[in-house]
Amino acid sequence: MIRELSFIDVLYLIAATRWTLALTAIAFAGGGLVGLAVALLRVSGLAPLRWLGGLYVLVVQGTPLLAWLFVFFFGLSIFGVEVSPWIAAADTRSRAMTRPTTPPPRKAIAVRARVQRMAAIR
């Protein structure tokens, strides 16, 4: 049986908002840092580092987020590693944030390096 929405339900939703905002902040910070690191790998002068950055982008962008969540929360417990739901959710959301944050910094870094090389030649 479905009950009607009451005032206490609204209070629960307001209380749950803080967890949503905290998870969003962690994902934004983690995704930005990992995205910047991957972008630096992608513009590295060393071919193995560029390959590693490209592999990360290929794997992360090619795997659904729900699969990442299952791997970290359920999959690691098979090997005896217990992961809290909070850590699994924060890691999964951080990986989701690396999707839009990796290409723009990589392009900006590459353009800046090209402009600096051109200025050094003159």
The fraction of residues in strands falls at under 5%
Mean pLDDT: 82
Largest sheet: none
Helix content class? over 70%
SSE order in H/E notation? HHHHH
Give the termini distance in whole angstroms: 77 Å
pLDDT under 50 segments (min length 5)? none
Main structural class: mainly alpha
Could you characterize what this model shows?
16% of the residues are buried. By secondary structure, this protein is an all-alpha fold. The longest helix is centred in the first third of the chain and has 36 residues, at 7-42. The chain is 84% helix and 0% strand. It has helices at 7-42, 47-62, 65-78, 85-101, 103-121. The radius of gyration is 20 Å and the shape is elongated. It starts with 6 loop residues before the first helix and ends with a helix. It has a domain at 47-122. The chain contains 5 helices and no strands. α1 (7-42) packs antiparallel against α2 (47-62).
Concise synopsis of the structure shown:
This protein has helices at residues 7-42, 47-62, 65-78, 85-101, 103-121. With 122 residues, it is an all-alpha fold.
Properties at a glance:
single chain, 122 residues, mainly alpha
Map the helices and strands:
Layout: H1 7-42, H2 47-62, H3 65-78, H4 85-101, H5 103-121
Helix pairs in contact: 1-2, 1-4, 1-5, 3-4
